[in-house]
């Protein structure tokens, strides 16, 4: 029986600060595919040093389509999608290899891993940030990411989701201001995508969804057990949610003015 191959796939732009450790954690894969969208720092040189296969696509079509393009360059039987601010732990590597090197391969299965998220000096244990399971391992010929501009995910249909062991480390928030700017960009992307799909929002819905986001993070997801970090994250989630719906409301207001 032919051995199955694994492609680790990354999309990146100006990730020089974080990329080396990410690539080092994936060095054991059969190939590493990096799709660059116009880096001006040393991202490409670092990728070359780690023997990644480098491709370029400068026209940004959203996260989902960018991941589809990146996957199209992969030759492995299995895909593991990773970001520059993530690291594969040894335990997760073992779990991935058990699937890829198994004698039996199930076309109706995809695989999720628990992601441990870093927030201002600590890895969170609650607040919806752990175990935060994400589907990252799947067969190349069968599945791909959806077309979402932001908050993209694997379009796996009716496939069974099998949990892997071992954490995927995610350096989510190392700098408060950088994180907040990224959150605002995500809110803008969400609002644009929702507008294109014909959705609407009121200022009342912005307030109620924001309150609900705080309640969910702080109480339902036990953010209070993460102490001050959990409280701050609950506030940020509420703020992000408000920005999403307020931005969607603003887009419609601008549309009405222009008529």
TrEMBL record:
Could you tell me which residue ranges the Glycosyltransferase 2-like domain spans? 7-126
Name of the molecule in the record: Glycosyltransferase family 2 protein
**Similarity annotation:** Belongs to the glycosyltransferase 2 family. WaaE/KdtX subfamily.
Q: Which InterPro entries match?
A: Glyco_trans_2-like, Nucleotide-diphossugar_trans
**What is the organism of origin for this protein?**
Limnobaculum xujianqingii
Question: Known SUPFAM superfamilies for this protein?
Answer: Nucleotide-diphospho-sugar transferases
Q: Which PANTHER family match?
A: GLYCOSYLTRANSFERASE (PTHR43630:SF2), POLY-BETA-1,6-N-ACETYL-D-GLUCOSAMINE SYNTHASE (PTHR43630)
């Amino acid at each position: 029986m032919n051995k199955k191959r694994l492609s680790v796939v990354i999309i990146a732009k100006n990730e020089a600060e974080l990329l080396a450790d990410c690539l080092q954690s994936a060095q054991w894969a059969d190939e590493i595919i990096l799709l660059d969208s116009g880096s001006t720092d040393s991202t490409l040189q670092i990728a070359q040093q780690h023997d990644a296969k480098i491709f370029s696509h400068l026209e940004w079509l959203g996260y989902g389509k960018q991941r589809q393009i990146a996957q199209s360059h992969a030759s492995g039987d299995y895909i593991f999608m990773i970001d520059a601010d993530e690291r594969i732990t040894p335990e997760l590597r073992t779990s991935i290899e058990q699937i890829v090197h198994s004698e039996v391969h199930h076309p109706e299965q995809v695989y999720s891993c628990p992601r441990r998220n870093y927030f201002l000096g600590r890895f969170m244990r609650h607040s919806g940030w752990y175990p935060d399971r994400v589907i990252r391992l799947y067969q190349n010929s069968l599945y791909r990411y959806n077309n979402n501009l932001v908050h993209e995910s694997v379009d796996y249909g009716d496939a069974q989701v099998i949990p892997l062991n071992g954490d995927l480390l995610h350096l989510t928030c190392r700098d408060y201001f950088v994180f907040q700017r990224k959150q605002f960009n995500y809110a803008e992307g969400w609002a644009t995508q929702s507008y294109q799909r014909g959705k609407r929002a009121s200022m009342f819905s912005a307030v109620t969804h924001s309150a609900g986001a705080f309640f969910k993070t702080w109480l339902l997801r036990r953010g209070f057990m993460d102490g001050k970090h959990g409280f701050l994250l609950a506030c940020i989630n509420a703020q992000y949610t408000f920005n999403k719906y307020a931005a969607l409301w603003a887009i419609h207001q601008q549309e009405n003015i222009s008529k």
